[in-house]
Design brief:
This protein is mainly α. Helix content is 60%, strand content 0%. The protein has one domain. Helix 1 packs antiparallel against helix 3. The radius of gyration is 13 Å and the shape is globular.
């Protein structure tokens, strides 16, 4: 049996990953956070990983409110 790896990320690490995925798709962090918070997952095909990372943040995270 192959052991599964697990990772623990800080909030800042998650936001940094979201930002890098967003920039790679031609968007910025604020755009992705706004879209995720509104449930309007624009460009889902290119931003799927960024939106999945958003799910690691608490629903009431201040990053969503600031966006």
């Amino acid at each position: 049996m192959i052991a599964a790896a697990s990772y623990e990320l800080t909030r800042d690490e998650v936001l940094s990953l979201i930002d890098s995925k967003a920039r790679a798709a031609g968007h910025d962090l604020r755009f992705v956070l706004q879209q995720y918070a509104q449930g309007a997952l624009t460009d889902f095909g290119t931003l799927a990983e960024a939106y999945a990372l958003c799910d690691l943040l608490e629903g009431d995270d201040t990053a969503f409110q600031a966006a």
